[in-house]
Write a structure and sequence with these properties.
152 residues, alpha/beta, Rossmann fold, eight-stranded mixed sheet, 32% helix, 26% strand, globular
Length: 152
Amino acid sequence: MGTVFFYHLTRQPLEHTLPVLLDKARQAGWRIAVRGIDPARMDWLDEKLWLGPEDGFLPHGREGGPHDTEQPILLTTSPEVKNDAVCVMTVDGAPVEPDEVSALERVCILFDGNDDMAVQLARGQWKALTTAGCQAQYWSEESGRWEKKAEA
């Protein structure tokens, strides 16, 4: 059974934090799906990943290409995992189901702590997933470094 990690972004923006988490997941040998809700936002993330430092290149693709199933990191708005990912990272409140958490190694929910609606949505996801029996951890960068603040 997998675990869902909630990342409360308060100091660094998504475009800084996501590549760090993706790199750690790739180092673990995982394929990753990055799930959002807005295709334009996913295009923006795609561009940010391509413009990253050369020494931090993250091989990835945008859903809808001819090689979706082969992508080590696939940016998508689909709830269906198409690249055999064992880790799903969600942004902007993309949905996650309890059975999905159970089937994966890891689910990461990244949410903007400066957006009240995003915080409320993440709290709702925490409650729904933990009530369904999913293991969950809440991580905060409020102190300037990532610290685990809660576990269920």
